[in-house]
Structure formats: structure tokens, C-alpha cells
Specification:
36% of the residues lie in helices and 21% in strands. The protein is an alpha/beta fold and 361 residues long. Helix 3 (65-74) runs parallel beside helix 4, helix 9 (277-287) runs parallel beside helix 10 and helix 10 packs across helix 11 (330-337). The N and C termini lie far apart (60 Å).
């Protein structure tokens, strides 16, 4: 019989603590080792026994969740799953928590959610947290004063050697990117070294709920010189644009007289996700074809692998993030297993490659 992972619940609401405790205690692979109403109580518990995973509320008395998270990640890093409400303010705070090193987040139950749905969602997040490698957590221990992260990941393994790839024209090309757990940080890292002056439109599906996608787009727009915005149905996608899929809706691309436009539509979940990476990748395979570059980044599951196969079949360049740099390598590994990946590179080398194929030199 496998040993259960120990979970520490840090939540100021007694009702929420009891609900989380009841749910987590019902799982065969996790157990509640402690409950704390604030970070100081949590610290006292951790001095006696260290948990395997922490669930952490954002708004608490005495010390807020971000401050406590920062202390955890700079001291003895542990997998932390944030507890967040579905509001614009909490979305921005949660995105900051992911930057500081939180693995993922759990949305506080909505009225329409059933207990079964809530339990499944929480269990999935705990499984993800339990699977994150220690090396990924330790990266956040070495943040500088400006919150930049020193890269201590392993050297990249490339599926094919570097080559003198043909140049691509930004005016008729497109980059499509898919990511899930750990993706917000990975996407920021990638965009930070891309040359926005030569990039074609970039369409991104990050598994993310409503409110969070708008906050994510706003955050990226402030950080980088790209024109970053949440996807709008029918809006032209221009060179230098970075288009973030709306949470809860699929993003596709279609050809127009001036180039490409975004298509935002509702529809059933694909691979349990909405937006789905497969939906974006398949549309780019049909419309952009050999002028597309597909990039599949960190995340659990297989969303994007089949879409990447269609991109490859239609002549596109296909890249996955280096497995040793991923918080969870399931999505990239699924594409590798299908044999449809041209290159496996870390974020810096993905950026170097994209800059090289779109440069005028």
C-alpha cells in the first residue's frame, strides 16, 4: 500500500477549512496532517512535521498568502496550491503567486458546482502538485531581489541537432503555443527574450478560467513590448500581437484578406479543457499550414499532442519545452511519444530559434 501524501490546509475561513479537510480526507492517496487559520499557526505545525503539499488561501489575517508563499519558497520549497476566488483582483494576485513558485491554484467552489466536481478538481490539483520535481521547486529558492529566477535546470536534450533552418516571413506566418500547469511562468520567460519587432502573430492557449485570462493578458502587456490582449472574435492578428485565449472558450485562427483573424467560440471541452490546445493547433494546421510554428509547453495530460501531429503533417515546425524545465512534462511528452516533434528545447533556446528563423539576416 502506497504512503499517503500529507497536506497542510492554511485557510482563515473555518467553513472552507472544514470543507477542504473533509474532501481531502476522502482521497485514498492524500491525508490532512494539519489545519491552520493563518501562516503563524501553519509555521508552528511545520516546525513539528513538514507536509508534502500546502493549500494556501490568499487573504488571511496577520500575514497574507503571498508573503507566506514567498517565505516558503525562499526557505524550504514545497509544492503549494493556492486557493483563489473567481474575481479579477484575485486573478492578478494568483498569477503573482504562480510567479513566486506556487504550483497551481484551486478556485473556491461556486454555487453551481457539485461536490463531486469540486472533489475531482481538488484531487487533480493535488496530484499535479505531488508530481512536480524538486528541481523545479528549487528554482524559486534563488530568485533575485527583482523576483527574477536564476536558471538551475538541467541542460537541454534536443531531439534533432541544431540546423540552419529556412527563414520565415512574419507577414504570412504564425506561432501557436499551448501550456497548462506552470505555463504562465514559462510563457513569460519565453516572451521576455523574443524580439517583438520581427515576430509574427502569436496565439496562446493557456489552460485558465475566465477573469484569469484577461488578467494574464494585461500582465503580459505591461511586462513586454508586444501588443498582448485577450482574444476577440474577428479581430485581425498582426505581427507583434500576442493573443491569449479566453478562459472558458476555444480559440481558433482563420485566414482573412489581410492575414489571419481570431475566432472565439464556445463548445464542449476537449481533453477536459476549454480552451483546448488541440483546437488551436488543429485550426493553425489547416489555415497556416507550413508557415506555422507550434510550441507545446509544460502541463499535465495530453492536450495539444494530436494537434501538434496535424501541424507536423501539414509542414509546420514543431517544438516542445525541454522536459527538465517543465513543472509537469505530460503534454510535451505526449507529443514526443507520437513522434511529431522537431525540437525539444528550453525556453531560452526556443526564443533563440524563433528569433533566428524570423530575423532578416
Amino acid at each position: 500500500m502506497s504512503v499517503k501524501k500529507k497536506v497542510l490546509i492554511v485557510e482563515d475561513s473555518r467553513t472552507a477549512r472544514e470543507l477542504l479537510s473533509e474532501i481531502i480526507s476522502s482521497f485514498d492517496d492524500f491525508e490532512v496532517m494539519g489545519r491552520a487559520a493563518d501562516p503563524y499557526e501553519a509555521h508552528d505545525i511545520m516546525k513539528k512535521e513538514m507536509p508534502d503539499i500546502i493549500t494556501l488561501d490568499i487573504e488571511m489575517p496577520k500575514m497574507d498568502g503571498l508573503t507566506f508563499l514567498d517565505k516558503i519558497m525562499r526557505g524550504a520549497p514545497l509544492p503549494v496550491v493556492m486557493i483563489s476566488s473567481l474575481t479579477s483582483e484575485n486573478a492578478a494576485i494568483t498569477l503573482k503567486a504562480l510567479e513566486l513558485g506556487a504550483v497551481d491554484y484551486i478556485l473556491k467552489p461556486q454555487n453551481e458546482s457539485s461536490m463531486k466536481e469540486i472533489s475531482e478538481r481538488i484531487h487533480e490539483k493535488l496530484v499535479i502538485a505531488a508530481s512536480v520535481p524538486r528541481s523545479w521547486l528549487n528554482i524559486h529558492k534563488y530568485r533575485g531581489k527583482d523576483d527574477s529566477v536564476r536558471d538551475f535546470t538541467r541542460k537541454t536534450i534536443k531531439l534533432v541537432p541544431s540546423d540552419d533552418s529556412a527563414k520565415m516571413l512574419p507577414s504570412c506566418s504564425m506561432i501557436v503555443i499551448g501550456a497548462s500547469t506552470g505555463g504562465t511562468v514559462a510563457i513569460e520567460k519565453l516572451l521576455s527574450t523574443l524580439d517583438c519587432r520581427i515576430m509574427p502573430p502569436i496565439a496562446i492557449v493557456q489552460h485558465i478560467p475566465p477573469f484569469f485570462s484577461r488578467s494574464f493578458a494585461d500582465r503580459l502587456n505591461k511586462l513586454f513590448p508586444f501588443n498582448v490582449y485577450e482574444a476577440e472574435n474577428g479581430r485581425p492578428m498582426l505581427p507583434g500581437d500576442v493573443v491569449i485565449a479566453q478562459g472558458g472558450k476555444h480559440l481558433l485562427v482563420q485566414r482573412s484578406h489581410a492575414g489571419y483573424t481570431a475566432v472565439v467560440k464556445e463548445g464542449p471541452k476537449v481533453n477536459r479543457h476549454q480552451p483546448s490546445v488541440d483546437i488551436l493547433f488543429k485550426s493553425a494546421a489547416l489555415v497556416v499550414r507550413a508557415n506555422a510554428v507550434g510550441v507545446l509547453m509544460t502541463g499535465m495530460g495530453c492536450d495539444g499532442a494530436v494537434g501538434m501531429a496535424e501541424l507536423k503533417r501539414n509542414g509546420a515546425v514543431t517544438i516542445v519545452q525541454d522536459r527538465y524545465e517543465c513543472a509537469v512534462a505530460g503534454m510535451p511528452r505526449s507529443a514526443v511519444d507520437l513522434g511529431v516533434v522537431d525540437k525539444e528545447l528550453d525556453c531560452q533556446r526556443i526564443s533563440d530559434f524563433l528569433n533566428s528563423i524570423f530575423s532578416a539576416d
